[in-house]
């Protein structure tokens, strides 16, 4: 079991590059309605997959460098990294089942 690591632009690169497991990066905003729907699924993913996956949470507005680097155009957004490279991208609301399928494909 693992918890979500809240990061900023300062820590983001290091957290992704030094990860020994795949990384799920969740980009969100406080003003984003769909983010409120997706956030519980990210918590679930951290709990369910935490032994095989690092989960990062990054608020987009105060962290424009990571948003730009990861090509995030809308929120909520998900990026899955393996060995520091993006292997999966998803933007918009996602169901718990779709999130599980997305993660299972990379774990």
Structural write-up:
With 107 residues, the chain is α/β, with parallel strands linked by helices. Helix content is 38%, strand content 26%. It has 4 helices and 5 strands; from the N terminus they run E-H-E-H-E-H-E-E-H. A 5-stranded mixed sheet has the order 1-3-2-4-5, sandwiched between helices. Helix 2 links the parallel strand 2 (23-28) and strand 3 (54-59). The chain is globular and about 30 Å long. The two termini are 15 Å apart. The mean pLDDT is 96.
Question: What's the gist of this structure?
Answer:
The protein has 107 residues and is an alpha/beta fold. The protein is built from four helices and five strands; from the N terminus they run βαβαβαββα.
* Distance between the first and last residues' Cα: 15 Å
Largest sheet features: 5 strands, mixed
**What radius of gyration results from the CA coordinates?**
12 Å
- How are helices and strands ordered from N to C? EHEHEHEEH
Strand order of the largest sheet: 1-3-2-4-5
Strand content: 25-35%
Tally of DSSP β-strands: 5
Helix fraction bin? 25-40%
Task: Reconstruct the topology from this structure.
Blueprint: E1 4-6, H1 9-17, E2 23-28, H2 33-49, E3 54-59, H3 64-69, E4 77-82, E5 85-91, H4 96-104
Parallel strand pairs: 1-3, 2-3
Antiparallel strand pairs: 2-4, 4-5
């Amino acid at each position: 079991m693992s918890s979500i690591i809240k990061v900023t632009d300062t820590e983001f690169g290091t957290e992704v590059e030094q990860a020994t497991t795949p990384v799920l990066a969740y980009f969100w905003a406080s003003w984003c309605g769909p983010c409120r729907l997706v956030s519980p699924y990210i918590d679930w993913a951290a709990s369910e997959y935490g032994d095989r996956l690092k989960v990062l949470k990054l608020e987009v507005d105060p962290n424009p460098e990571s948003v730009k680097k990861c090509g995030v155009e809308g929120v909520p957004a998900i990026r899955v990294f393996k060995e520091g490279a993006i292997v999966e991208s998803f933007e918009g609301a996602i169901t718990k089942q779709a999130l599980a399928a997305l993660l299972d494909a990379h774990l």
